[in-house]
Amino acid sequence: MQLSDFREIKADPATVWAAILNPDVLKECVPGCESMSGSVAEGFEAVVTQKVGPVKATFKGAVTFSDIVEGQSLKISGEGKGGPAGFAKGGAAVTLEPMEGGTKLSYQVDASVGGKIAQLGSRIIDGFAKKMADEFFTRFQDAVEGPQEDEPAETAEGEGEKKKGWFKRLIG
Question: pTM for the full model?
Answer without folding.
Answer: 0.78
